Amino acid sequence: MFEYRMYKVNEAELLREAAAQRLVGEARAARRNRRHTEHEAEGRVSHLRDLRDRFAHAA
């Protein structure tokens, strides 16, 4: 009986730890997605090399 109770305590502890790790992963993914959508809302920023390709070189 004692072994069974220790097994159940260990099982509950492992389940809590897995749930906590899953929550951390979901928070990271949400933060990453939020940053990505914020950048998309702002639009693309032109880079110097884009400007060089757009205009002809002076003689």
Characterization of this structure:
With 59 residues, this protein is mainly alpha-helical. It has two helices and no strands. It starts with a helix and ends in a 5-residue tail after the last helix.
Jot down its keywords.
0% strand, 2 helices, 59 residues, rod-shaped
How many helix segments? Answer: 2
Which range best describes the helical content: under 10%, 10-25%, 25-40%, 40-55%, 55-70% or over 70%?
over 70%
Strand content: under 5%
What is the CA-CA span between the terminal residues?
91 Å
Biggest β-sheet strands, sense, barrel: none
Give the SSE string: HH
**What is the gyration radius calculated from CA atoms?**
26 Å
The stretches of 5 or more residues where confidence is low (pLDDT under 50) are none
Overall geometry comes to: rod-shaped
Q: How many distinct beta strands?
A: 0
**Secondary-structure content class:** mainly alpha
- Overall pLDDT level: 81
